[in-house]
Amino acid sequence: MAMKIRLARGGSKKRPFYRIVAADSRMPRDGRFIEKLGTYNPLLPKDSEDRVKMDLDAIKAWLDKGAQPTDRVARMLEAAGVLEKKERANLKKGQPGTKAQERAAEKAEKAAAANAPAAAPAEEAAEEAAAEESAE
C-alpha cells in the first residue's frame, strides 16, 4: 500500500481549511484517511502559531514506515525541521506564458514605432538649427 502524507481540504467555499493526514495514495483527496496528523489554516497570518499544527511524533513514525509527503507537506516539515531542506529548481518560475510574451513583444514594437517618429522631428529640428547657425 503506497502511503502519502497529504492535505485533505475542509472548510466552506472560499474559506479553505486543511487537515494533514496519512492516507492511501489511491483514496480521493478528501476521502478516507488512516490518521489525522495535524491542521493547516492558510487564512491565518504566516507568523501565527495556529497556521500549521502538526503531531511531529506521529509524522516521524509514518515517515519511518515509508510514507511519502506531498510537496506542500514536505515544505511544512522542512520549516518544522523534520526533513532536510531539498534543493528545488523551478527554472520557469516567474516566466510569463507564451501569449503574455507575444503581447509584451507587440507592445515593445508599438512603443519603438511610436518613439521613432517622435525622435525623427527632433533630429530634423536639431539639423535645421545647426544649418542656420552655420549660415550666420
Automatic annotation (TrEMBL):
Biased segments, Basic and acidic residues type: 100-110
Keywords associated with the record: Ribonucleoprotein, Ribosomal protein
Biased composition (Acidic residues): 124-136
Comp. bias regions, Low complexity: 111-123
GO biological process: translation
Cellular compartments per GO CC: cytoplasm; small ribosomal subunit
Positions of the UniProt region annotated as Disordered: 87-136
GO molecular function terms noted in the UniProt entry: structural constituent of ribosome
InterPro entries tied to this protein: Ribosomal_bS16, Ribosomal_bS16_dom_sf
Presence of the UniProt keyword Nucleus in the record: no
Domain of life per record: Bacteria
Annotated Pfam families: Ribosomal_S16
Alphabetical list of NCBIfam families matching this protein: S16
PANTHER family documented for this protein: 30S RIBOSOMAL PROTEIN S16, SMALL RIBOSOMAL SUBUNIT PROTEIN BS16M
Similarity remark: Belongs to the bacterial ribosomal protein bS16 family.
Full protein name: Small ribosomal subunit protein bS16
Source organism: Maritimibacter fusiformis
